[in-house]
Amino acid sequence: ILLTTPLFFVMSRLIDPNMMLTAWITLAFWAAVAWMQDGRRWQLGVFYAALALGFLTKGPVAIAVVALTLAGYRFWPRATREALPWRSPWSLAGVVVCAIASLSWFVVVARRHPELYDLFLGRELVDRVASDAHGRSEPFFFYVVLFPLGLLPWLPAFLTGLCDAWKRRDDADRLAL
Q1: What tens digit of pLDDT does each residue of 18-68 get?
Q2: How far apart are CA 79 and CA 92, in angstroms?
Q3: Sign (positive or negative) of CA dihedral 49, 68, 7, 131
Q4: DSSP class of 132
Q5: Checking CA distances to 119, which of 127, 131, 138, 157 falls within 20 to 30 Å?
Q6: Quick one: which of 48, 50, 49, 55 has its CA closest to 91?
Q7: Are residues 94 and 47 in contact, defined by beta-carbon separation less than 8 angstroms?
Q8: 3-state helix, strand, coil in the chain (%, to 5)
Q9: pLDDT exceeding 90 applies to what percent of the chain?
Q10: Is the CB of residue 43 less than 8 Å from the CB of residue 2?
Q11: Closest C-alpha among 45, 63, 47, 46 to residue 55
């Protein structure tokens, strides 16, 4: 589906780390779902390796996207989760190994160049999200228009699926009462 959307095609032609980030996030999701279905240890290894490589590609956004999505799935009504039981991929050992792998490059480079701590943590992390210091001052509606156009061939199917999922969620909530 992604390969046939205009937005994905255009972004894949740019020299931009977002496509590599998309690959690592997709691999992390695949490994998490595989772990929930099969429970094999190597799947957790792939999960944490993909998170670490996503972090090395573009910072903590990789981990945030995966963690927030898994949290949303975890707390979705049970009736809609029965096809895929929840088996948490999070473990202290995995998080520690992921953190070591994720931060390895940054720590080595920042020890040689201490000014990178402020550059990375301040300018690249905080300022990118909390200000328009990077020239990203598009109004909110810019994205409201861009994403539907970029996903146009699949937008009707997506909206239909979203409505169906919402209706099933409401039905599951009524049945639970």
Answers
A1: 889 999 999 999 999 999 888 899 999 999 999 999 999 988 889 999 999
A2: 29
A3: negative
A4: S
A5: 138
A6: 48
A7: yes
A8: 80, 0, 20
A9: 27
A10: no
A11: 63
Q: How many CB atoms lie within 10 A of CB 10?
A: 10
> What is the dihedral sign for C-alpha 13, 14, 17, 22?
negative
d(CA 137, CA 156): 29
Judge contact between 72 and 160, C-beta under 8 A: no
Q: Do residues 124 and 59 lie in contact, with contact meaning Cβ atoms separated by under 8 Å?
A: yes
pLDDT top residue among 173 and 66: 66
Lookup: tokens for 172: 């599951």
Nearest alpha carbon to residue 23 among 45, 51, 44 = 51
Q: Identify the pLDDT of residue 134.
A: 65
- CA 72 to CA 130: how far, in whole Å? 24
Number of H helices, E strands in the chain: 10, 0
d(CA 28, CA 161): 23
Burial status of residue 67 (CB atoms within 10 A of its CB: 0-12, 13-18, 19 or more) = middle
Whole-prediction pTM: 0.69
